Amino acid sequence: MSTDMNDRISGALRSPLTFSVLAGVLIGALFLVGTGADPIAAYEAVLTGSLGADGIGSTLTTGTSVLGMALALAIPLRAGLINLGGDGQMVLGGITAAVTGLYAPLPAPLTVVLALLAGMAAGALYAALAALCENHFGVPLLVSSLLLSYPAVSLASYLARYPLKEPGSSLPQTRALPDGVALPAFGDSTVTWGLVLVGLAAAAYWFTDRRTAIGYEIRMTGLNARFSAYAGVERRGLTLKLMSVSGATAGLVGAIGVLSFPYRFVDGSLTAPGYTWTGLTAALLATAAPLGTVVASFFFAVLQVGGLAMERTTEVPRELTQVLQAIVIVFLAARLRFPRRWFNRRKEAV
């Protein structure tokens, strides 16, 4: 039993993911030393600012959106499909949730549920459109999903700036949602039940991936699309299903953003933080594995929030955390590992 556990631990330590993160931290420390900063103090500021009492709320709030988008992009990526339309699907889900929240003639709790479902439906339909472009017109999914993002973002921007704009406001934002049309928060924090919803989505992804036949088909398609086709997996249908679920998850993230503070759709608020690209990075870092995607998303949320704290307390630019992310991805792309011989020596010594 102990031997099996040691093998698992050594395998995890030799993985490209572990090597990439440690290499990124080490090279980041060298950058800090080169700028005359104290790397220990800087990294301490990152951890304290993101995981301390004053920062954990912001980390969980940021992590909600990062994890949601990471899941949205990991779902098709598991089958070798790349969805680059996360921004459009998320924004369309957000503006649909805002319209639903403003005009639905229902009690507040039912309006919240309806807004979430409407946001998911909008994201799913728009992502399905990209899948149909590939299935019936031969447009590569990577291209169709990316190009379809722009009209969706532009439409949402138009609605927030003109028909739905808050009267008298100089900001491009919709009117505030009615009282009670909001996701409940945990205490006085900014963390809402959106975190629970995204967590449930992650659990559903793990269960589907590991415990269902379609999850097996998805993994096999990602490993070898030609083999899965010979085994009877219908590629077009799978693409449509996965893109619909991916878009629904992205739309859910947009709806959560609108139903949380400031309880309205603000033009650019969903796309400016770069949740889509951070989520894609997390999904790639974890090779779209469910548990790995959760861990990688939390890692990047810590970097984002901690980078701001590092800049405030040590005057080190927060752009360093973006450099750190880039280094991690470069090392991961190289698929480098700790030498197996080093671990064998450790075993012999023990």
Please tell me about this protein's structure.
The protein has 15 helices and no strands. The chain is globular, with a radius of gyration of 22 Å. Helix 2 (16-34) packs antiparallel against helix 14, helix 4 (56-77) packs parallel to helix 8 and helix 4 runs antiparallel to helix 11. The protein has 350 residues and is mainly α.
Itemize the secondary structure elements and their pairings.
Elements: H1 2-13, H2 16-34, H3 39-51, H4 56-77, H5 86-103, H6 108-137, H7 141-161, H8 194-211, H9 213-223, H10 225-230, H11 235-259, H12 275-285, H13 290-314, H14 319-333, H15 340-349
Helix pairs in contact: 2-14, 3-13, 4-8, 4-11, 4-12, 4-13, 5-6, 5-7, 5-11, 6-7, 6-11, 8-9, 12-13, 13-14
Shape: globular
Q: What is the alpha-carbon Rg in Å?
A: 22 Å
> Number of helical segments?
15
Instruction: Please count the beta strands (DSSP E, at least 2 residues each).
Output: 0
What is the CA–CA distance across the termini?
Answer: 16 Å
Provide the structure class.
mainly alpha
Outline the biggest β-sheet. none
What portion of residues belong to β-strands? under 5%
Give the helix level as a range of percent: over 70%
What order do the helices and strands follow? Answer: HHHHHHHHHHHHHHH
Nearest-integer average pLDDT = 89
